[in-house]
Amino acid sequence: MRTKSEARRSAILMAAGQVFHDQGFEGASMAQIAMSLGCSKATLYAYFESKEVLFYEVLMTAAGSQMRETFNSIENLSLPIHDALQILGEQIISLLYSEEVMAVRRLLLSAAGRKAGLGKACYEAGPAQFLEATSLLLKHYMDTGKLRQSDSRVAALHLRALLESEWIDLFLFSTMQGFDQAFCKETATRATDAFLAAYSPTQ
Amino acid sequence: MRTKSEARRSAILMAAGQVFHDQGFEGASMAQIAMSLGCSKATLYAYFESKEVLFYEVLMTAAGSQMRETFNSIENLSLPIHDALQILGEQIISLLYSEEVMAVRRLLLSAAGRKAGLGKACYEAGPAQFLEATSLLLKHYMDTGKLRQSDSRVAALHLRALLESEWIDLFLFSTMQGFDQAFCKETATRATDAFLAAYSPTQ
Question: In this model, does residue B159 exceed pLDDT 70?
Fold first, then answer.
C-alpha cells in the first residue's frame, strides 16, 4: 500500500515532468511547478530539496520504469545470458548518453560540489537503484551457474564500466556529436563479450 | 631536436605551473603568467587558448612524466603481467582521483560545453596520450602471447574502465571523502583480475 506522502511525491514528479517538458530545465521554476499542483513552494521543497534534485528524479523515474521493463522482459523471456546482457547494455548506454541525462549529469557535477547532499540524493535516486537491480540479476546468474561466484556488486560495477568504456570520455570532454545507435550496439557487444569472458564459470 | 616553439611551450608550462602552485587555479591569471615569462598575453594565448587548457596541460605534463616512469619501469623490470598491470592501475587511479585532477575535470565538464574545442584540446593533452601508451603496452603483451589478440585500443579502454569502475560515481556525484590508498590497491587488484580473465589467451 502506498502512503499518502508517496502518492503526493508521485503527483509532484508527474507535474514537474510536464513543466520541465514544456519549459526546459532552465525555463522551469519551483514556483511554476508548485502552482501547477496547487500547492505551496514550501510543500514542494519538503519533498525535493532543489530544482536539480527534482529534475534528476523526474528523469530517473522515467528511466527507472524503462529499466524495470527491461529487467522484467529479461526474466520473462528467459533469454540466454549473452542476449540478456546485450539488451540491458544497449539500454544502459542509450539512457546514460542521451542528451537529457548528460545535461543533468553535467549540471550535477558543477552543482554537487557546492551543495552538500545534492550528489548523494541524486546518486540514491539513480545509480544506486540501478546497481542494486543489476547486482540481483548477476547474483541470479551466479546462483544458476551461468556466471562464476563472486561479489555481485563489484561484477555489476565492472559490467557498467565496460559498457561505458568507449563513451565516458566523449561525455567528460564534451566531444560527442549526437547519439550513434550503431556504435551503441557495437560497444555493448564488445563490453558484453569482455564481461562474459571475465565472469564465465571456469571450465 | 626540439623546435624553438616547443622550447617556448615548455617554458610556458613551467612558469604557469609555478604561478598555479603559488596562486591556485582561481587566483592565477593569464596576465600574471605572461608577466612571469616576460612575454605578452597575446603570445601566451597563441600557445594556449585559455587558462583552463593551460592548467590542464600543466597537470597532464606532470602526470605524463610520472606515467612515462611507470611505463619505463614496467619495461625495464620485465615484471610479470599481473604485477605490471597492478602497478599501472594504482597509478592511474591515484592520478585520476587526486583532488587536483578531479577539480579540473569538473571545471572542464562545465566549461567544455560552452567553449568549442576546449574539451577536444584537453582530451588530446591527457587521455588520448595515455590511451596510446596503454594500447602499445597491451599490444606488446598480445604479440608476446601474454594476452589474446584483439583490438588493443578497445582493450586499453576496457582496462581503464575497470580500474575506474568503483570510483567514477564518487567523482560524478561528488560523494568522495578523501583518497583512500587501501581502496585504491583493492580496486586495482579486482580490475586487473577481471581484465586478465577477459583478455588472457584461451587455454
Answer: yes
